[in-house]
Specification:
By secondary structure, this protein is α+β, with helices and mostly antiparallel strands.
Length: about 80
């Protein structure tokens, strides 16, 4: 499973771009997904493809689990911040 983030040029922001779309795709073929995304892009847009789920190790219990790649640090059992709250 992959997540595609599409960023659009926006000079009003400090980074010069903003996230305009974030979609999940249930496919194992990254190259086909990349080709279809490139065909749909408008001028001034760029994309990033991420594996949706990553394997991390919990700080307490030292067991592996999977979570989304974009889980905030404070919400992830793999960070000390999660356990200190």
């Amino acid at each position: 499973m992959y997540t595609v983030e599409i960023y659009k040029e926006d000079r009003r922001t400090k980074a010069g771009e903003k996230l305009s779309q974030k979609n999940d795709y249930d496919t194992d073929n990254r190259s086909t997904l990349e080709k279809s995304i490139k065909d749909q892009l408008q001028p001034g847009e760029r994309y990033e493809i991420h594996e949706t789920y990553v394997t991390r190790t919990s700080r307490v219990g030292n067991h592996d689990y999977q979570e989304r790649y974009d889980t905030p640090r404070a919400c992830s059992p793999s960070s000390d911040l999660f356990w200190s709250m």
